[in-house]
Amino acid sequence: NVLNIITLAKKRFEEPAADERQFFSIGCHSHNEMHLLPEILRQMADSCPMLYPVFQVVPFRHLYQLLDEETVDVIIAFQEKSSKKTEGIYKELARVRITGVLPANHPLAEKELLDEDALRTQRLLLLDPQRCPDSLNAVQQELASGRAVSDLLMCGSADACVMLAKAGFGIAVQPDFPSLRDPALAYIPIKGTEPLSYGAYYKTASGKPLLKDFLLLCKKSL
């Protein structure tokens, strides 16, 4: 990565007038979240043909440092309330329900809500706390309380949770983004859980037209 950056920098120095790319760096916690962005970036590219998106997928404890250092223009993430992560601004883009994800032909897929009794009949597929936003982790801990270790399966990514749910290993506890839904799966709200705030962290939008467009398109899309 360092060599690539050096090579690009040398090319830009050699031909400074030729590089008209408009770099826009987006930080997120998982590759799964990038699937929210194709249509948003397509619309941005329509108005800015030289748009050059750059992605930073970084573990939770380090991503906000990149924003403080202005290495990224914006972070898309669930709102973190447990501690002050950054000096930046948080803008809510959506309220996201917590759902139980299971095969569409599963007996519980016909329910409108999954209550505690229903959840206790199934293994829970949870996201590794080290890779999980604080707000979702709090929900996971409550649902896992009092359950045997054999009733829980920890996954390293949201994609892994959903894949194992599809394979019939249990119910994945996941935020529900309609644009990421798989038609082979059912997404049933979990009773007693509050929607999570999903949004963007940034330092300032002043003088940053690409960031302003991004925030507006995210708000409409999400």
Description:
This protein has 222 residues and is an alpha/beta fold. Helix content is 31%, strand content 26%. It is built from 7 helices and 10 strands. It has helices spanning 2-14, 38-47, 60-68, 116-119, 134-144, 158-166, 209-221, and strands at 22-28, 51-57, 74-78, 89-96, 98-103, 124-127, 152-155, 171-175, 185-189, 196-202. The strands form 2 sheets. Strands 2-1-3-10-4 form a 5-stranded mixed β-sheet, sandwiched between helices. A 5-stranded mixed β-sheet has the order 7-6-8-5-9, sandwiched between helices. β6 (124-127), α5 (134-144) and β7 (152-155) form a beta-alpha-beta unit. The two termini are 32 Å apart. The mean pLDDT is 91.
Q: Give the spatial strand order of the biggest sheet.
A: 2-1-3-10-4
**What integer is the average pLDDT?**
91
The overall strand count is 10
What's the helix count? 7
Which key phrases capture this entry?
222 residues; alpha/beta; five-stranded mixed β-sheet; 10 strands; elongated
Annotate the secondary structure layout:
Layout lengths: L1 H13 L7 E7 L9 H10 L3 E7 L2 H9 L5 E5 L10 E8 L1 E6 L12 H4 L4 E4 L6 H11 L7 E4 L2 H9 L4 E5 L9 E5 L6 E7 L6 H13 L1
Helix pairs in contact: 2-7
Task: Describe, in short, the structure shown.
The protein contains 7 helices and 10 strands. The protein is of the alpha/beta class. α5 (134-144) links the parallel β6 (124-127) and β7.
